[in-house]
């Protein structure tokens, strides 16, 4: 906007048994006599059964003490913080100072269109509260504000209120610029700002009418 201001594992071992063999098989036909025992025959079976129940109980208790694993991504402090960030008002992400490039195109009278580019354009966005934002266009050379406009936020887009005036102080009465339409779209740190203004220019004793198109693309610092 500087020009405008100046002019306006390997495999595991096999688990299959290898077998007894002929020598081991011959010993099966003549088993050793049983020794007398004071413990009833049923005692070993009962003991084995009880041991099985005890083992089962320990396994169940261990599983119960451990409890089901908490699903990933839900609950906990991390999930809560993410949810709060997602629920934060979008307008809080928009405020900041943006720098980038703009293109200003004048259409006045019968004169050909005059596009003017500024590769060092600056645009500030301030949060006014209540879903309203204020956009300040700055002269890239002096840093002075040359136009202030308000807009209301909906999602990631702000719509500027028509009828607002722009550049009045810089034109010193020689030009009146009235906002027709204007939008600002935010994507992360990127801002795309567009507006269309109706112009009335007083020069050399005559009044000329026209319009102005402004396009800005910038990144928040």
Plain-language structure description:
With 221 residues, the chain is of the alpha+beta class. It has a domain at 89-104 and 116-220: Porin (Beta Barrel), CATH 2.40.160. The protein has helices spanning 2-7, 22-26, 42-66, 76-87, 168-171; strands spanning 96-108, 114-129, 132-138, 145-154, 157-160, 165-166, 175-187, 190-203, 206-220. It has an eight-stranded antiparallel beta barrel. The model is unreliable at 3-33, 36-49, 58-80 and 83-91 (pLDDT under 50).
What is the structure about, briefly put?
With 221 residues, this protein is α+β, with helices and mostly antiparallel strands. It has an 8-stranded antiparallel β-barrel with strand order 1-2-3-4-5-7-8-9.
The rounded Rg comes to 41 Å
Mean pLDDT: 72
Category by helix and strand content: alpha+beta
Low-confidence stretches: 3-33, 36-49, 58-80, 83-91
Task: Outline the fold blueprint.
Layout: H1 2-7, H2 22-26, H3 42-66, H4 76-87, E1 96-108, E2 114-129, E3 132-138, E4 145-154, E5 157-160, E6 165-166, H5 168-171, E7 175-187, E8 190-203, E9 206-220
Antiparallel strand pairs: 1-2, 1-9, 2-3, 3-4, 4-5, 5-7, 6-7, 7-8, 8-9
